[in-house]
Amino acid sequence: MNRIIYLISKHIDIFELFTEVYIFGSVVKNNKFPNDIDLLLVYRIYSEEIEGKKNMIEQFLKNLFELEIDITILSEKELEQTKFLEKLDSVYERIK
């Protein structure tokens, strides 16, 4: 497991509002010098807390890694309908 995925996994509690969390892109491709960190956060039921939590996660990870953080948020239904994970061609890792 690479360092970034390991450290995010150590802070898994920041994703408490989300049922699933995936990391994808250059971090998963074992790029030693990724440009950014791409995350997919999946929720079951929308609440106003989700947007605030997204901003908190983004700032926390930006401070931790000094990289840009790109976060996509989808409902469980949207994840299924858009086939988001299939479009990543298996270049992702589920961390929650």
From TrEMBL:
Pfam families given in the database record: NTP_transf_2 (PF01909)
Top-level taxon of the source organism: Bacteria
Record domain Polymerase nucleotidyl transferase: where: 19-80
One MF term in the entry's GO annotations: nucleotidyltransferase activity
Swiss-Prot/TrEMBL keywords: Transferase
Name of this chain's protein: Putative nucleotidyltransferase
Organism annotation: Sulfurospirillum halorespirans DSM 13726
